[in-house]
Design goal:
Layout (H helix, E strand, L loop, with lengths): L18 H31 L6 H29 L1 H19 L5 H30 L4 H30 L2 H21 L4 H7 L16 H32 L4 H29 L1 H18 L7 H29 L2 H32 L5 H17 L16
Helix pairs in contact: 1-4, 1-5, 1-6, 2-3, 2-4, 2-12, 3-4, 3-6, 4-5, 4-12, 5-9, 5-11, 8-9, 8-11, 8-12, 8-13, 9-10, 9-11, 10-11, 10-13, 11-12
Length: 415
């Protein structure tokens, strides 16, 4: 069966203005950022009120299984988007995620809530790698890294806006309103995507003239095996850092003697640094190359994290250190995705990005558990920063095994 663009839609093939593809890819990633924060925003209310019969243990289960769903969705979407296209896959995943998120607001029990979070995670997890695959191909080789990092600013903007939104919405309308907002916004995006999102020209070129499928195993066949392993390790460590720091930075700083309010302000500073790093890192990668840039970024992230273990005398130095850490840590992870998009041919690029994102999501689960274990043991400061710095070093070592370029003298075997 030949891979085709969305049936019944002329927008699937028609070129469109550069404004809409860029905006819609950014919005898809922003929905992921929304989901990063929304459960954390409602957990205190669910825990304190016992709504739906939740306990601390069942809330932990909800958070964990939601991330498991996201990881499965990321891995599973690759072969789909490489078969039916970026456009149809992205629209379908956002529709799925939005309906299930909206349904979560009306969950009758904790069990139903958990199941809906897991199922919504499947659709949401598929959005990020699909959106990044599309935008890297839409931008072309010369600017794919900067296009991907700019798109990922949506992730952090979505996270910050959600946290701010929750301050007013939950007290006024209840925790359910947060899921209603997320679901409705997603559903409003779907028809706009249907009208304005084109199919990736790289996908159309790769699928044109062949009726064969590219099997997902091509991502680990021959010379790509060691390449994929190196990138997966880096992605795992990158998201371990992102989720570990976003979850536990306030607690670690509190253990270091800072107030809780200062810890929350530092968390905001961390994410501001992330957005700045994303704006800069992609431009450097497009000029200097993906490998040298991602190695430098993880290396500097390790240094910044290790320095944060040093007790600083002034608030300015503390905030500056956290800003620098956010600048390098968060964009290092996105540079891994840009590296994947650069190395793999279009026929398996969606699968490769999905696998990298899926393995990374395992790191997103391990990071908070690791941080929590350090906090519980009383070793969060300074050892938490040393552990996170070590994770960045492991990413550097893994990426050293990955070549800067692949010539693809033979395209993936089609069966």
């Amino acid at each position: 069966m030949t891979a085709t663009p969305a049936a019944g839609s002329t927008a699937g093939n028609r070129p469109t203005s550069g404004f809409w593809p860029v905006l819609l890819a950014w919005l898809a990633v922003a929905l992921d950022g929304y989901d990063l924060v929304v459960l954390g925003a409602v957990i205190p209310t669910l825990d304190s009120t016992g709504a739906l019969g939740f306990t601390t243990a069942s809330l932990t289960t909800a958070a964990t299984l939601g991330l498991v769903g996201v990881g499965i969705g990321a891995v599973g979407v690759g072969p789909v988007t490489d078969r039916i296209g970026r456009r149809t896959t992205l629209i379908s995943c956002i529709a799925m995620f939005s309906v299930l998120t909206l349904a979560t607001a009306f969950a009758p029990s904790a069990t139903a809530f958990i199941v809906l979070r897991f199922l919504a995670g499947l659709g949401l997890g598929a959005c990020l790698p699909t959106a990044l695959t599309f935008i890297s191909e839409y931008a072309g080789d010369r600017s794919s890294s900067s296009a991907m990092t700019r798109t990922m600013t949506g992730y952090h903007v979505g996270a910050v806006l959600t946290a701010l939104l929750a301050l007013g919405v939950i007290p006024a309308f209840g925790w359910e309103a947060m899921f209603v907002i997320g679901g409705v916004v997603g559903l409003l995006v779907v028809p706009v995507m249907w009208a304005k999102l084109p199919e990736s020209q790289a996908f159309l070129a790769a699928s044109e003239g062949t009726a064969e499928r590219v099997k997902p195993v091509e991502v680990v066949r021959g010379k790509l095996l060691l390449v994929s392993i190196g990138l997966w390790v880096a992605s795992f460590m990158g998201l371990l850092l992102v989720y570990g720091l976003n979850t536990w930075l306030p607690s670690i700083m509190e253990a270091a003697g800072y107030s809780l309010s200062a810890g929350l302000a530092l968390l905001l500073t961390l994410n501001i640094g992330a957005v700045l790093g994303l704006v800069v890192s992609g431009q450097i990668a497009d000029r200097r190359g993906n490998k040298v840039t991602v190695l430098a970024w993880f290396g500097l992230a390790a240094v910044a994290l290790a320095l944060m273990a040093i007790k600083m005398d002034t608030s300015f130095l503390v905030y500056a250190a956290v800003l620098v850490a956010g600048f390098f840590v968060f964009s290092a992870q996105v540079l891994v995705y840009a590296y994947v998009g650069h190395l793999y041919p279009a026929a398996i690029r969606g699968t490769a990005l999905g696998m990298a994102a899926g393995v990374g999501r395992v790191g997103a689960i391990v990071g908070p558990f690791l941080g929590g274990a350090l906090v519980a043991s009383g070793a969060a400061y300074p050892w938490g920063f040393f552990v996170f710095a070590a994770a960045a070093v492991v990413a550097v070592l893994a990426l050293l095994t990955v070549p800067a370029h692949l010539d693809h003298e033979s395209e993936p075997v089609r069966v």
